[in-house]
Specification:
Layout lengths: L4 E7 L13 H18 L4 H6 L2 E12 L8 E11 L3 E9 L5 E13 L10 H10 L1
Length: 136
């Protein structure tokens, strides 16, 4: 840790929960995905515009640790930190926390940069790297 972080608020909606009233395990991935999308947006890049430039980001690897259940109507926050910025990939540490900093779920996520037409790895443009480093 120690790198700049990006923070994104999350409210747990009823549709995020399972029959037990806690966040369904797959929905933590949605929370993390939304935070990464908003981080990219804050850096000045919209995914549809990047796709029009033949660039997409794709999930390559996820390691998740479910620590405590998040529940309906909780206000939480996703903390996103870039832990490695490679030529064609990004690695993130993401945590879903409450206002006291208690961690509900955390993940190490690797994203690849691909050409939109052939889904082959391509280098992340320098402008994107610089702005992502600035916002988080």
């Amino acid at each position: 840790m120690g790198n700049p972080t990006f923070r994104w608020p999350v409210r747990v909606y009823y549709s995020d929960t399972d029959a037990g009233g806690v966040v369904y395990h797959a929905n933590y991935l949605n929370f993390f995905e939304h935070a990464r999308t908003e981080m990219l947006r804050q850096a000045g890049f919209e995914q549809d515009q990047l796709m029009a430039q033949n660039l997409v980001f794709a999930l390559r690897q996820v390691v998740m640790d479910f620590i405590r259940p998040a529940r309906f109507n909780q206000m939480l926050e996703v903390i996103t930190e870039i832990t490695q910025l490679g030529g064609a990939s990004l690695q993130f540490e993401q945590r879903l926390v409450d206002a006291q900093g208690e961690v509900f779920c955390q993940a190490q996520i690797k994203i690849g940069c691909l050409s939109a037409d052939q889904f082959r790895p391509i280098r992340i443009p320098q402008a994107i790297k610089q702005e992502l480093a600035r916002v988080g």
